Write the structure tokens for this entry.
Amino acid sequence: MNSFLKNGKGILLAYDQGFEHGPSADFNDQNIDPNYVIDIARKGDFTGLVLHKGIAEKYYDGKVPLIVKLNGKTNLPKSEPVSTQVCSVEEAVSLGAKGVGYTVYLGSAHESLMLQEFGEIQEEAHEVGIPAIAWIYPRGEAVKNDTSPEIVSYAARAGLEIGADAVKIKYSGTPETFSWAVKAAGVIKVFMSGGPKAPTDETFLGQVKGAMDAGAAGLAVGRNVWQHQDPAKMAAALKEIIFNGRDVGKALEMSVAQ
Ligand code: FBP
């Protein structure tokens, strides 16, 4: 995971939502353009950029370390969630990936399919010496609350046990409960997942601070940065919290000064 970390911490910019949610759900005239978001990653010194292979192939400029998402789905089917492979490890590497990502919908009726595919891509990634990062999102009929401490720590532990080098999980609401999830993940890195744009900067930064205080390695974020009216300011505040351990107020103050 070292390619995506600075002093053991990292901030990854995710831009797979056009496929996962559809362009009309998340984009405006600016952020529908991949170049706009790739530029935010570069100017904001993100330690990783997450793309599907099509965007990587057509737009990636080699500036920020690349993670290619190997599976994906649209939000059109209303059945139990399942996301299957759309890109090989070999193809990801040829596009410049220094790591690969894969989403497992834990608890879905189709979880076994995703667990099996992840097992295969994890082995292939390790053969070529790159990390396999698991987005582990509990979801489906059987999952009543995807941010409960029990389910979030279950996701973290599943990541460790299936061989992920890092897990991306949702915040469980408090540093106390999230630290249990971090413990459950053992030696692997835990990244908090961003989620929909929060109502205020303080709200989102407070969650990130809570996750970092709980021992997270960092954040994988999309909408809270590239939907922000000032992405550079939000990125600066996030970095103050993640890399310099600032509290929310100080991070915001420093982000204005930059
Ligand atoms: P966001 O910060 O925008 O939530 O991005 C993180 C991410 O994991 C993306 O990689 C992915 O497309 C999205 O969240 C998944 O969203 P959802 O939870 O709605 O499926």
Observations:
- The two ends are 29 Å apart (CA to CA).
- The pocket of 1,6-di-O-phosphono-beta-D-fructofuranose is lined by residues 14, 16-17, 20, 50, 135, 137, 193-195, 220-224 (CB under 6 Å).
- The first helix runs from residue 17 to 20.
- The chain has a mean pLDDT of 97.
